[in-house]
Specification:
Blueprint: E1 22-27, E2 30-35, H1 40-46, E3 53-54, E4 61-62, E5 75-78, E6 81-84, E7 95-98, E8 112-114, E9 118-127, H2 131-142, E10 147-150, H3 171-174, H4 180-192, E11 197-200, E12 203-208, E13 214-218, E14 221-232, E15 236-238, E16 251-253, H5 254-263, E17 271-275, H6 279-290, E18 294-300, H7 309-316, E19 322-324, E20 326-332, E21 339-344, E22 357-360, E23 363-366, E24 370-372, H8 375-382, E25 387-389, H9 399-416, H10 425-434, E26 455-458, H11 468-472, E27 478-479, E28 490-491, H12 501-505, E29 511-517, E30 523-530, E31 542-546, E32 552-562, E33 571-578, E34 587-590, E35 617-619, E36 624-625, H13 626-634, H14 640-647, H15 660-669, H16 691-694, E37 697-700
Helix pairs in contact: 2-4, 2-9, 5-6, 6-7, 9-10
Length: 702
């Protein structure tokens, strides 16, 4: 088990692989090796271990799902204590055991001595060190307002730290054109400049109480904090999806995948399939390609993807098939997913018989949307606390919107404290634009500017909030019509220098530049971006050229490769193509042998294990199936607290964070008006806290 180089990334086109000291520990009595600072589950994945235990009720294998501390799938026993493997760092000599049942409690426990719980007051408490929490803290720090910012991770930035792609929006408002992980560093550095802002890392807010105090678990200490203003910027958790086999190891969230690959430098899969065509799913596919992972395909139940079209286009150009109006039918496998079956759906989202396709895979990512992490917010409001919500805890939107709107919330908090601060009306308008959903798709010009040898070609044909290309053009020849960044950029002049700055900064990889042609106009040179491993790509190599939709145009030859310092790890390729292809060529891909036909119809799936028909697991923690919940609903149950009492849904470690949405969907499917359904009661503690820490035990009598 100790050999772990096979499952670790050795190189990455964007990320710098960190060389960290080895940590030796044991898993089920066998020696394994991790890296300093990484979580238990990461180290186990690096050793090829995907199963961390078996559920005590039915022996089902347990793997990861969220890798964000929001579920309990990764529970292990570390040095005798049950812990979430994704939130607990490995330590030298640690004894980690599979969690197959509750650990045995000692019968003769020494008498503890209790110490009092620490308390403190602050002007503002910010829960969450992601984009909105950081910018809110920056605004408060600039005003000298005492602020405590906490985050349950060991690093500030939230999901920004996982984003290797360039961000949309505007340079001025939200660092558009920069990579998310670099924006995280900039924002974290900003708050370090403020003496009035204190930061606690690896600190989780676990409950809000009627006396308007917030319980915080910081390492092995429990502290009560009483803020004058509470800002909840805790982000979002991924939605789950119920289908036969959805609980198999290897079926997990796209955010979990990004954490393993982009934070922990793990290669967790060889053949990946994705369910969900929002930005999270589309970006996860691109991140997989950057890490050298095969993306077998992606399905989206709606007629078109919900994410930005440029995200869709760039993975289609790299050969990833996307099936819209399709859904996942089932996953199958023995101790982990080995195969997935999909099918087309009709206008009611019901599977269409005879359209099934099956694929051999080892990982299935679920990217079907996000829910705000707002339990603390709801409880604080119930108790009459002065509370504000920021980022995804307020409204699910792009991180660029969270970056900007956090500044508004920071100033709102200052106003609540009586400070005379201004929030310009323009700020609210900008925030609305950045939160805008993808707009209309428009037809782009098919003709080249007359008599120009150099000019950009734009393939961002959907109205989205983005304008970096207009801000970097050295001759100011790129404009967006109107006064909003939601328009489509146009080349409006005759002075393109062929510098490639627009190609370098475009977040959607949606710009090419025709940089010249031969005197007889037989061939033209096209500048294109590249962010994947270079492999065998070099000057003189022949490549396959593709259009905006990923369809093959023809072939081209690499004439030059440049990596400018200003290009931020994005290579620029000059490709010589037939002159008549110069407007159509949007990207290229290596001619690496014949590609497998991913879209061919497969024969009926052969199931490796017997699955219980169409009766999937709904509550992962307690292994409650769909049929059990349906029976209760049909018996007249309308209170989800009653479901907790009768069949123990939401009674596991996650506290209903993954199954509540799925249960509400079952109510809808049964024709129950959700207005008649009582939601489960949210109480502290919101997150597991060892009772010894909660009680303030500091020492014991021998």
């Amino acid at each position: 088990m100790s050999g772990n180089t096979e499952f670790r990334l050795r190189s990455h086109p964007i990320l710098t692989i960190e060389d960290r000291p080895a940590v030796n520990f044991a898993f089920d009595g066998q020696p394994v090796q991790g890296r300093a600072g990484e979580m238990i589950t990461t180290s186990l994945f690096a050793n090829g271990i995907r199963i961390f235990g078996h559920h005590e009720s039915d022996g089902a294998p347990q793997g990861i799902f969220c890798v964000n501390g929001q579920c309990s799938q990764c529970m292990v026993i570390a040095d005798g204590m049950p812990v979430k493997g994704c939130m607990t760092p490995v330590a030298e000599g640690m004894d980690v055991r599979s969690c197959n049942a509750a650990p045995e409690l000692p019968l003769d426990e020494p008498r503890p001595k209790f110490s009092g719980t620490k308390t403190r007051t602050v002007d503002v408490l910010i829960v969450g060190g992601g984009p909105s929490g950081l910018t809110a803290a920056d605004e408060l720090g600039a005003l000298g307002i005492g602020t405590l910012l906490i985050d349950d991770k060991a690093r500030l930035g939230g999901k920004l730290t996982l984003q290797t792609h360039n961000f949309f929006g505007s340079i001025e408002d939200c660092y558009a054109g920069m990579r998310g992980m670099d924006i995280a560093e900039v924002l974290a550095a900003d708050i370090r400049k403020h003496e009035s802002v204190e930061t606690w890392l690896s600190a989780a807010a676990v409950g809000v109480y009627a006396d308007k105090k917030v319980g915080i678990l910081r390492g092995d200490e429990y502290i009560l904090v009483e803020p004058k203003v509470l800002i909840v910027a805790a982000g979002a958790r991924e939605k789950s999806l119920a289908f036969p086999g959805c609980d198999l190891p290897g079926v997990y969230g796209a955010g979990a995948f990004q954490t393993l690959v982009n934070r922990d430098f793990i290669k967790p899969t060889d053949r990946l399939f994705i369910v969900g065509g929002g930005n999270v799913g589309l970006i996860a596919a691109y991140h997989a390609l950057q890490a050298g992972i095969e993306v077998v395909g992606l399905v989206e139940a709606l007629p078109s993807v919900g994410g930005y079209k440029v995200h869709q286009d760039k993975i289609k150009r790299l050969g990833v098939p996307i099936w819209t109006s399709h859904t996942v039918l089932r996953a199958e496998g023995a101790d982990g997913v080995q195969r997935v079956t999909i099918a087309a759906v009709d206008e009611r989202f019901s599977p269409v018989a005879g359209t099934e396709r099956s694929f051999d895979i080892d990982t299935l990512l679920i990217a079907v949307g996000l829910n705000p992490i707002d339990e603390l917010l709801i409880t604080a409001e119930k108790y009459g606390m002065c509370t504000l919500a920021a980022g995804d805890s307020h409204e699910i939107a792009e991180a660029s919107a969270a970056i900007f709107s956090g500044r508004i919330i920071g100033r709102e908090a200052a106003k609540q404290l009586g400070h005379d601060v201004e929030i310009p009306d323009q700020w609210h308008q900008t925030a609305e634009v950045l939160r805008a959903k993808p707009g209309d798709t428009v037809a782009l010009p098919e003709a080249a500017p007359q008599d120009l040898d150099k000019f950009p070609v734009f393939r961002c044909d959907q109205e989205i909030p983005c304008n970096p290309c207009t801000e970097v053009c050295p001759v100011n020849q790129i404009k967006i019509p109107g006064d909003s960044m939601l328009g489509i950029p146009e080349f409006v002049g005759e002075q393109c220098t062929g510098c490639g700055k627009c190609v370098i900064i475009c977040p959607g990889l949606a710009i090419s530049v025709v940089v010249g042609s031969d005197p007889d106009r037989q061939t033209a040179n096209v500048m294109l971006p590249w962010e994947l491993p270079l492999g065998d790509l070099a000057k003189g190599v022949e490549v396959e050229t593709v259009d905006a939709d990923g369809d093959v145009v023809g072939r081209g030859t690499v004439t030059k490769i440049k990596l400018f310092k200003s290009a931020d790890r994005r290579h620029l390729f000059w490709i010589d193509v037939p002159y008549d292809d110069r407007l159509r060529v949007a990207a290229f891909r290596p001619m690496a042998g014949e590609r497998q036909d991913q879209q061919g119809m497969a024969e009926a799936a052969h199931y490796a294990v017997t699955l219980p028909g169409d009766d999937p697991i709904i509550c992962r923690c307690m292994r409650v199936r769909k049929s059990e919940i349906i029976a209760e609903i049909r018996a007249g149950v309308r209170d989800m607290n009653q479901l907790k009492a009768s069949i123990r849904t939401s009674m596991g470690s996650c506290g209903g964070k993954t199954c509540t949405d799925l249960i509400l969907r079952l109510f809808r499917e049964e024709g129950v008006d959700l207005a008649d359904v009582t939601l489960p009661t949210t109480r502290p503690l919101d997150t597991e806290v060892p009772l010894g820490i909660f009680a303030g035990i500091k020492e014991v009598d021998a």
